[in-house]
Amino acid sequence: MKPPKGANAVRRAPTIAGDDAWIARYMPVPFVEHGRSFRGCDCRGQHYLILEHELGVRVPEPDDLYRGVDRRDAEDIAAFVRAQASLWRRVEPDENGYPRFALLLFLVAGLPTHVGTSLGGRRFIHTQKGCGARTASLDEAEPGEAFWGSRLEGAYVYGG
Fold first, then answer.
1. Is residue 53 part of a domain?
2. CATH number for the domain including 36?
3. 148 in a domain, yes or no?
4. Which of 122, 113, 127, 100 shows the shortest CA–CA distance to 43?
């Protein structure tokens, strides 16, 4: 089966055991712009997919959220994120870090447009174009970027 247009190559899931074994289910899911399923998803889609399949929580979103992926669209997405803030409760880290399954909202070019799902503590799972799904730490940086922790706008739990 040919991957959907815009998808990156499917990656093999790492061997993950114990409380984090659920993560392996999401590692081979390719990055697909606007995707919301196991056939492919973007960063927000991955978080919604995890909430639905791991916690039974379905987060509604408008069908017309995305029109494209240019700078103006990023501003529209950021406006949507701000407008939806009332449905999400901000959570602060405790001595162990952020709670598992919290949405971690990151700034990209100064706008809140990238999300990851907390694995508990300072680790998270996320997906990006050209990289696919992977785990990372707030104490790590992407090549040419600041540490994830310095770009973290906040952590949120859905309550809608």
1. yes
2. 3.90.1720.10
3. yes
4. 127
Q: Judge whether 76 lies within some domain.
A: no
- List, for residues 98-132, the tens digit of each pLDDT value: 999 999 999 988 888 899 999 999 999 999 998 89
> How would you label 79-96 residue by residue, b for 16+ Cβ within 10 Å and e otherwise?
ebbeebeeebeeeeeeee
Indicate the number of domains in the chain: 1
Handedness of CA 129, 55, 154, 112 (dihedral sign): positive
Within-domain flag for 70:
no
Q: Give Rg (Cα) of the chain.
A: 15
Q: What is the pLDDT of residues 8-48, one digit of tens each?
A: 433 333 445 577 889 999 999 999 998 999 999 999 999 99
- Rounded Cα distance between 46 and 35, Å, is 8
